[in-house]
Amino acid sequence: MSQPSLPGTITKAAFDSNIGSLIVQAFLSGLYTFILYRTVHGAVPRIRNGRHIPLMAALISLYVIYMINFAATCIVARSLLVAYMNVSKLFARIENDTAMVTALIADALLVWRCYMLWMKSKWLLALFVVALIGEAALMTAVFVITTPVINDIIPCFLILSLIITVVATAMIIYRILTVSRETGTTRRYGYIIEIFVQSGIIYSISLLVTVVCFYLPDGNVSAIEAYSYATSVLIPVTGIAPTMIAERVVNATEHDEEKWSQPISTLRFNHTTQRGETPHPQSHV
Length: 285
Hints:
10 helices
Protein backbone atom coordinates (compact mmCIF):
# COMPACT_ATOMS: atom_id res chain seq x y z
CA MET A 1 0.00 0.00 0.00
CA SER A 2 1.51 3.29 -1.08
CA GLN A 3 1.89 6.18 1.35
CA PRO A 4 -0.12 9.35 0.71
CA SER A 5 1.76 11.95 -1.26
CA LEU A 6 2.93 15.01 0.62
CA PRO A 7 1.64 18.31 -0.73
CA GLY A 8 4.48 20.47 -2.01
CA THR A 9 6.96 22.94 -0.64
CA ILE A 10 4.80 24.34 2.16
CA THR A 11 4.28 20.96 3.78
CA LYS A 12 7.98 20.13 3.54
CA ALA A 13 8.81 23.46 5.16
CA ALA A 14 6.33 22.70 7.94
CA PHE A 15 7.93 19.29 8.51
CA ASP A 16 11.46 20.67 8.49
CA SER A 17 10.73 23.58 10.81
CA ASN A 18 8.78 21.29 13.13
CA ILE A 19 11.80 19.05 13.66
CA GLY A 20 14.21 21.94 14.12
CA SER A 21 11.94 23.93 16.42
CA LEU A 22 11.24 20.86 18.56
CA ILE A 23 14.99 20.36 19.07
CA VAL A 24 15.37 24.03 20.04
CA GLN A 25 12.47 23.83 22.48
CA ALA A 26 13.80 20.61 24.01
CA PHE A 27 17.18 22.28 24.66
CA LEU A 28 15.55 25.34 26.21
CA SER A 29 13.30 23.11 28.30
CA GLY A 30 16.40 21.54 29.84
CA LEU A 31 17.83 24.99 30.53
CA TYR A 32 14.52 26.07 32.05
CA THR A 33 14.51 23.03 34.35
CA PHE A 34 18.05 23.79 35.53
CA ILE A 35 17.25 27.46 36.27
CA LEU A 36 14.08 26.52 38.15
CA TYR A 37 15.98 23.96 40.23
CA ARG A 38 18.58 26.58 41.21
CA THR A 39 15.86 29.07 42.11
CA VAL A 40 13.78 26.68 44.21
CA HIS A 41 16.89 25.25 45.89
CA GLY A 42 18.03 28.74 46.84
CA ALA A 43 14.58 29.63 48.15
CA VAL A 44 14.19 26.58 50.44
CA PRO A 45 15.82 28.18 53.53
CA ARG A 46 13.66 31.28 53.14
CA ILE A 47 10.51 29.25 52.51
CA ARG A 48 11.00 27.65 55.91
CA ASN A 49 10.81 31.16 57.35
CA GLY A 50 7.61 31.86 55.43
CA ARG A 51 9.22 33.96 52.68
CA HIS A 52 8.69 33.64 48.92
CA ILE A 53 5.99 30.95 49.22
CA PRO A 54 3.54 32.64 46.78
CA LEU A 55 6.39 33.35 44.36
CA MET A 56 7.59 29.74 44.40
CA ALA A 57 4.02 28.47 43.98
CA ALA A 58 3.57 30.67 40.91
CA LEU A 59 6.89 29.53 39.41
CA ILE A 60 6.16 25.83 39.95
CA SER A 61 2.66 26.24 38.50
CA LEU A 62 4.17 27.99 35.50
CA TYR A 63 6.65 25.14 35.02
CA VAL A 64 3.98 22.43 35.26
CA ILE A 65 1.78 24.17 32.70
CA TYR A 66 4.77 24.65 30.43
CA MET A 67 5.67 20.94 30.59
CA ILE A 68 2.07 20.07 29.65
CA ASN A 69 2.48 22.41 26.70
CA PHE A 70 5.77 20.78 25.70
CA ALA A 71 4.23 17.30 25.89
CA ALA A 72 1.34 18.43 23.69
CA THR A 73 3.82 20.00 21.26
CA CYS A 74 5.68 16.69 20.96
CA ILE A 75 2.43 14.82 20.26
CA VAL A 76 1.39 17.37 17.63
CA ALA A 77 4.84 17.14 16.02
CA ARG A 78 4.52 13.36 15.90
CA SER A 79 1.12 13.72 14.23
CA LEU A 80 2.68 15.94 11.57
CA LEU A 81 5.63 13.70 10.90
CA VAL A 82 4.15 10.23 11.32
CA ALA A 83 0.44 10.62 10.60
CA TYR A 84 0.94 12.95 7.60
CA MET A 85 -0.81 16.10 8.87
CA ASN A 86 -3.50 14.14 10.77
CA VAL A 87 -3.09 16.36 13.83
CA SER A 88 -5.13 15.64 16.94
CA LYS A 89 -7.43 18.61 17.55
CA LEU A 90 -7.41 17.92 21.29
CA PHE A 91 -3.64 18.15 21.68
CA ALA A 92 -3.42 21.10 19.29
CA ARG A 93 -5.95 22.89 21.53
CA ILE A 94 -4.02 21.94 24.67
CA GLU A 95 -0.83 23.24 23.09
CA ASN A 96 -2.47 26.57 22.24
CA ASP A 97 -4.33 27.03 25.54
CA THR A 98 -1.39 26.20 27.81
CA ALA A 99 0.81 28.61 25.84
CA MET A 100 -1.67 31.40 26.60
CA VAL A 101 -1.83 30.50 30.30
CA THR A 102 1.97 30.57 30.60
CA ALA A 103 2.02 33.98 28.90
CA LEU A 104 -0.54 35.36 31.37
CA ILE A 105 1.38 34.05 34.40
CA ALA A 106 4.67 35.38 33.02
CA ASP A 107 3.13 38.81 32.39
CA ALA A 108 1.72 38.88 35.93
CA LEU A 109 5.14 38.02 37.43
CA LEU A 110 6.81 40.72 35.34
CA VAL A 111 4.19 43.24 36.48
CA TRP A 112 4.78 42.17 40.09
CA ARG A 113 8.52 42.84 39.76
CA CYS A 114 7.88 46.22 38.15
CA TYR A 115 5.48 47.10 40.99
CA MET A 116 8.05 46.14 43.63
CA LEU A 117 10.87 48.12 42.01
CA TRP A 118 8.67 51.21 41.61
CA MET A 119 8.11 51.56 45.36
CA LYS A 120 4.83 49.59 45.25
CA SER A 121 3.03 52.32 43.34
CA LYS A 122 -0.73 51.73 43.60
CA TRP A 123 -1.44 53.75 40.44
CA LEU A 124 1.03 51.71 38.46
CA LEU A 125 -0.40 48.47 39.81
CA ALA A 126 -3.96 49.55 38.98
CA LEU A 127 -3.06 50.27 35.33
CA PHE A 128 -1.31 46.93 34.91
CA VAL A 129 -4.12 45.03 36.65
CA VAL A 130 -6.64 46.46 34.18
CA ALA A 131 -4.43 45.31 31.30
CA LEU A 132 -3.99 41.85 32.87
CA ILE A 133 -7.76 41.52 33.33
CA GLY A 134 -8.19 42.33 29.64
CA GLU A 135 -5.58 39.72 28.76
CA ALA A 136 -7.34 37.14 30.96
CA ALA A 137 -10.69 37.99 29.32
CA LEU A 138 -9.25 37.42 25.85
CA MET A 139 -7.72 34.13 26.98
CA THR A 140 -11.06 33.00 28.42
CA ALA A 141 -12.78 33.91 25.17
CA VAL A 142 -10.33 31.71 23.25
CA PHE A 143 -11.08 28.83 25.65
CA VAL A 144 -14.85 29.18 25.22
CA ILE A 145 -15.28 30.13 21.57
CA THR A 146 -14.92 27.41 18.94
CA THR A 147 -15.95 29.39 15.87
CA PRO A 148 -13.44 30.89 13.37
CA VAL A 149 -13.65 34.22 15.25
CA ILE A 150 -10.99 32.72 17.54
CA ASN A 151 -8.46 33.56 14.83
CA ASP A 152 -9.17 37.26 15.46
CA ILE A 153 -8.90 37.00 19.25
CA ILE A 154 -5.48 35.34 19.42
CA PRO A 155 -3.69 38.24 17.66
CA CYS A 156 -5.36 40.66 20.12
CA PHE A 157 -4.09 38.55 23.01
CA LEU A 158 -0.56 38.56 21.59
CA ILE A 159 -0.55 42.32 21.04
CA LEU A 160 -1.92 43.07 24.54
CA SER A 161 0.65 40.73 26.09
CA LEU A 162 3.36 42.47 24.06
CA ILE A 163 2.22 45.91 25.28
CA ILE A 164 2.22 44.80 28.93
CA THR A 165 5.62 43.15 28.59
CA VAL A 166 7.32 46.00 26.74
CA VAL A 167 5.98 48.69 29.10
CA ALA A 168 6.89 46.73 32.24
CA THR A 169 10.33 45.88 30.85
CA ALA A 170 11.02 49.49 29.86
CA MET A 171 10.00 50.74 33.30
CA ILE A 172 12.20 48.17 35.05
CA ILE A 173 15.18 49.08 32.85
CA TYR A 174 14.67 52.79 33.53
CA ARG A 175 14.45 52.13 37.26
CA ILE A 176 17.63 50.01 37.26
CA LEU A 177 19.60 52.64 35.33
CA THR A 178 18.34 55.49 37.51
CA VAL A 179 19.01 53.76 40.83
CA SER A 180 22.42 52.45 39.73
CA ARG A 181 23.58 55.89 38.61
CA GLU A 182 22.35 57.60 41.76
CA THR A 183 23.99 55.11 44.11
CA GLY A 184 27.11 54.68 41.99
CA THR A 185 27.34 51.04 43.08
CA THR A 186 26.95 49.37 39.70
CA ARG A 187 29.50 49.48 36.92
CA ARG A 188 28.79 49.10 33.22
CA TYR A 189 28.82 45.30 33.24
CA GLY A 190 26.58 45.45 36.30
CA TYR A 191 24.03 47.45 34.33
CA ILE A 192 23.95 44.73 31.70
CA ILE A 193 23.52 41.92 34.24
CA GLU A 194 20.81 43.68 36.22
CA ILE A 195 18.90 44.68 33.07
CA PHE A 196 19.17 41.22 31.52
CA VAL A 197 18.05 39.40 34.67
CA GLN A 198 15.57 41.73 36.34
CA SER A 199 13.76 43.21 33.35
CA GLY A 200 12.86 40.00 31.54
CA ILE A 201 14.13 41.63 28.36
CA ILE A 202 14.67 38.25 26.66
CA TYR A 203 10.93 37.60 27.05
CA SER A 204 10.04 40.98 25.51
CA ILE A 205 12.35 40.44 22.54
CA SER A 206 11.09 36.89 21.97
CA LEU A 207 7.46 38.02 22.12
CA LEU A 208 8.11 40.92 19.75
CA VAL A 209 9.78 38.63 17.19
CA THR A 210 6.90 36.14 17.45
CA VAL A 211 4.28 38.85 16.88
CA VAL A 212 6.18 40.11 13.83
CA CYS A 213 6.44 36.56 12.44
CA PHE A 214 2.73 36.03 13.10
CA TYR A 215 1.89 38.84 10.69
CA LEU A 216 4.19 37.68 7.89
CA PRO A 217 2.36 36.78 4.64
CA ASP A 218 0.59 33.42 4.65
CA GLY A 219 1.83 30.70 2.34
CA ASN A 220 5.42 31.87 2.48
CA VAL A 221 7.96 29.16 3.30
CA SER A 222 10.24 31.53 5.20
CA ALA A 223 7.28 32.85 7.19
CA ILE A 224 6.27 29.34 8.25
CA GLU A 225 9.79 28.48 9.36
CA ALA A 226 10.32 31.82 11.12
CA TYR A 227 7.08 31.57 13.10
CA SER A 228 7.76 27.95 14.05
CA TYR A 229 11.22 28.74 15.41
CA ALA A 230 10.03 31.96 17.09
CA THR A 231 7.32 30.14 19.05
CA SER A 232 9.73 27.33 19.98
CA VAL A 233 11.93 29.97 21.65
CA LEU A 234 9.14 32.14 23.06
CA ILE A 235 7.25 29.47 25.00
CA PRO A 236 10.19 28.23 27.15
CA VAL A 237 11.50 31.79 27.52
CA THR A 238 8.05 32.66 28.91
CA GLY A 239 9.05 30.50 31.87
CA ILE A 240 12.79 31.17 31.90
CA ALA A 241 12.57 34.98 32.14
CA PRO A 242 10.35 35.24 35.28
CA THR A 243 12.31 32.38 36.88
CA MET A 244 15.55 34.33 36.40
CA ILE A 245 13.89 37.36 37.98
CA ALA A 246 12.75 35.22 40.91
CA GLU A 247 16.24 33.79 41.36
CA ARG A 248 17.59 37.35 41.60
CA VAL A 249 14.95 38.19 44.22
CA VAL A 250 15.56 35.01 46.23
CA ASN A 251 19.34 35.46 46.33
CA ALA A 252 19.26 39.20 46.99
CA THR A 253 19.92 40.56 50.47
CA GLU A 254 17.37 42.73 52.24
CA HIS A 255 19.67 45.71 51.65
CA ASP A 256 19.66 45.07 47.89
CA GLU A 257 15.87 44.89 47.76
CA GLU A 258 15.54 48.06 49.84
CA LYS A 259 17.93 49.84 47.48
CA TRP A 260 15.76 49.13 44.43
CA SER A 261 12.50 50.06 46.16
CA GLN A 262 13.52 53.37 47.78
CA PRO A 263 12.80 56.85 46.37
CA ILE A 264 15.66 58.38 44.39
CA SER A 265 16.01 61.25 46.87
CA THR A 266 16.57 58.78 49.72
CA LEU A 267 19.10 56.83 47.69
CA ARG A 268 21.02 60.02 46.91
CA PHE A 269 20.99 60.98 50.61
CA ASN A 270 22.20 57.55 51.75
CA HIS A 271 24.97 57.42 49.15
CA THR A 272 26.19 60.89 50.11
CA THR A 273 26.20 59.98 53.80
CA GLN A 274 28.11 56.73 53.19
CA ARG A 275 30.90 58.68 51.47
CA GLY A 276 31.27 60.79 54.59
CA GLU A 277 30.03 64.02 53.00
CA THR A 278 27.65 66.40 54.69
CA PRO A 279 24.25 66.07 53.03
CA HIS A 280 22.32 69.10 51.93
CA PRO A 281 19.54 69.89 54.43
CA GLN A 282 16.87 69.43 51.76
CA SER A 283 18.32 66.32 50.11
CA HIS A 284 16.15 63.97 52.18
CA VAL A 285 12.90 65.56 51.11
